[in-house]
UniProtKB/TrEMBL annotation:
PANTHER family: ARF-GAP WITH DUAL PH DOMAIN-CONTAINING PROTEIN 1-LIKE PROTEIN, ARF-GAP WITH DUAL PH DOMAIN-CONTAINING PROTEIN 2. The lineage of its organism: Eukaryota, Metazoa, Chordata, Craniata, Vertebrata. It comes from Oreochromis niloticus. Keywords: Cytoplasm, GTPase activation, Metal-binding, Repeat, Zinc, Zinc-finger. This is ArfGAP with dual PH domains 2. GO terms for molecular function: GTPase activator activity; phosphatidylinositol bisphosphate binding; phosphatidylinositol-3,4,5-trisphosphate binding; zinc ion binding. It comes from the Eukaryota.
Amino acid sequence: MANRERNKKILLELVKQPDNSRCADCGEPEPDWASYKLGIFVCLNCSGIHRSLSSHVKSIRLDFWEDKLVEVITVLSNTLLLNCECFHIFTLIHSILREQWIRAKYERKEFTGETKYPPLPYTTGFYEGILLKKGKDNTQFLKRKFVLSEREFTLSYYNKEDESKGPKAVISIKDLNATFQPEKIGHPNGLQITYQDGDHTRNLYVYHERSEEIVTWYNAIRAARYAYLKTAYPTGSDEELLPMITRNYLKEGYMEKTGPMQTESFKRRWFILDSQNRKLLYFKGHLDAEELGAIFIGTESKGYSVKEWVPLNARGNKWKCGLMLETPERQFVFMCEQERDQREWLEVLRKVLSRPMSPQDYTSKQDFSVL
């Protein structure tokens, strides 16, 4: 019993050290688990993946640790793994990314600094393969060939496997974004690719049956985006550029929308708040390929605001929890299904409103047309 309490105390002191105070894989603070095989401290979510890899994980609070195991983790801790995390353009948000990141580090050993042959796909500047893509005007997913070129800063895809007919679309990396959307797409490996097509925002919905393959595509896109940003902003630091590589949207969901006179019949629309670009986009449905319109969101000092609001002469709305987004050009009224949805939309919209505008935001505003 004395050894058990002593060893637990040692582990709890170790996990407080700066190198150990965050999960070695995802960065979550205050990890409660450790792998005595690898000598790392990890969070609950990451510990489950390590358990499937036979990394021998234990709870530092609940499990019994033998003296020799405590000695191993005391010597190793998280410090030996820090050198593996040099490929810093990765982020961990979704479970599929978490699992593949951990497998890449410990199972495939992709970040040891050694030269790999064949080279890792996301480090070559070129990647091609087959993804299942949703049709623009239907719900059918069909196999399509995709080609990513870092040299040309483009992502192309072909409707047929016969490349002689040329690509269906050549998409510039400049405004491209990729984010995992498993629930929205209805597949655990679902990826949403968004880009600018003239004045409109376009979405591609794709997936691959193998999680490693879709994560490779995600990382290849991120690598190409990083290369583009380094070219477009040569004096930009990694601290400035890394958040710009790809992003998850601040909030998505259905709201009812009325017209500019606020007397038109309400219609249900799918909204996406792209906080980085200060855009509130709306679509007819959640898997639409092209947005119907967008609202630029400036700052309160420039005449933008949001508040709870219920119009007096509403027609056709089934939902009762309203809000008004006001811009210098007009007022936009939306209805939410529940008060919780209303509160969440108000919170995230105010978050964007409170952020100062950058020089790029002012440029974007000049070229912007509202819905």
